[in-house]
UniProtKB/TrEMBL annotation:
Residue numbers spanned by region Domain III: 176-229
Family to which the UniProt record says this protein belongs: Belongs to the RuvA family.
Subunit structure: Homotetramer. Forms an RuvA(8)-RuvB(12)-Holliday junction (HJ) complex. HJ DNA is sandwiched between 2 RuvA tetramers; dsDNA enters through RuvA and exits via RuvB. An RuvB hexamer assembles on each DNA strand where it exits the tetramer. Each RuvB hexamer is contacted by two RuvA subunits (via domain III) on 2 adjacent RuvB subunits; this complex drives branch migration. In the full resolvosome a probable DNA-RuvA(4)-RuvB(12)-RuvC(2) complex forms which resolves the HJ.
CDD domains the record matches: UBA_RuvA_C
InterPro entries hit by this protein: DNA_helicase_Holl-junc_RuvA_I, Hlx-hairpin-Hlx_DNA-bd_motif, NA-bd_OB-fold, RuvA, RuvA_2-like, RuvA_C, RuvA_C_sf
Domain remark in the UniProt entry: Has three domains with a flexible linker between the domains II and III and assumes an 'L' shape. Domain III is highly mobile and contacts RuvB.
Name under which the protein is recorded: Holliday junction branch migration complex subunit RuvA
Cellular component per GO, a single term: Holliday junction helicase complex
Compartment(s) of residence: Cytoplasm
Keywords: ATP-binding, Cytoplasm, DNA damage, DNA recombination, DNA repair, DNA-binding, Helicase, Hydrolase, Nucleotide-binding
Residues of the Helix-hairpin-helix DNA-binding motif class domain: 73-92, 108-127
């Protein structure tokens, strides 16, 4: 299994990139969102990958974070969702957007992805709703280490045998929201709330207040979970 590819971009296609790793080129298929965030040819890049193997086909799919890779694997487990549809959903929503949509039961958000119909979107929500809390917790526990873009020293060490050159790699973005959501989920679980209802409330609270910290998320989620009337 090829779990990660680090090297330099040789060229970019409409739905893939060719990454040169010490003279060996790997074709990696990516979502539109991921492709748009990648640097240009000749620049250093690293992607977590998932290998699809069939009788007549082998394809690598690339993701900027382990959480996005996990969502890809889960989406592919849903009947009617192949690699193309999974990348379309991730390209439209991103990993955080998929987590929110599934936790909130937002079928319209899933259906907005190209090639995904209402019945398929409904299956995604139903089959993955109970799995959303675990992925949200995974995002929080990994935190900023989810970023696949390597540091300058890491990239130079990785590919020095083929093309030693100075590299300017972008810095990882902080993942405080994911950490706060994970901690809020844990707190609600300790209070006796079911994982699915806790995930829905935390996702809604995070959507309403993206900059909220853990305590704010817990208070907001508790208000959403409080009995109405």
């Amino acid at each position: 299994m090829i779990g990660k590819v680090s090297g330099r971009i040789d060229y970019r296609g409409e739905d893939h990139v060719l990454i040169d790793v010490r003279g060996v080129g790997y074709i990696v298929y990516c979502s539109d969102r991921t492709l748009a965030a990648l640097p240009g040819p000749g620049e250093a890049v690293a992607l977590y990958t998932d290998l699809l193997v069939r009788e007549d086909l082998m394809q690598l799919f690339g993701f900027p974070t382990l959480v996005e890779k996990e969502w890809h694997r889960l989406l592919m487990s849903v009947q009617g969702i192949g690699a193309k549809a999974s990348l379309a959903i991730l390209g439209a929503l991103g990993a955080d957007g998929v987590s929110r949509a599934i936790a909130l039961g937002d079928m319209a958000a899933i259906k907005a992805a190209k090639g995904v119909g209402p019945k398929t979107a409904q299956r995604v929500i139903i089959e993955l709703k109970d799995k959303a809390p675990a992925v949200m917790a995974m995002a929080g526990s990994l935190g900023a280490t989810l970023q696949a873009t390597p540091s300058t020293d890491e990239v130079i060490e990785e590919i020095a045998a083929s093309r030693p050159a100075p590299v300017a790699a972008p810095q990882p973005k902080p993942q405080t929201s994911a950490v706060a959501q994970s901690e809020a989920l844990s707190a609600l679980g300790n209070l006796g709330y079911a994982p699915s209802e806790a995930a829905g409330a935390v996702a809604q609270a995070a959507q309403d207040a993206p900059e909220a910290d853990t305590s704010d998320l817990i208070r907001a989620a508790l208000k959403l979970l409080a009995p109405k009337g």
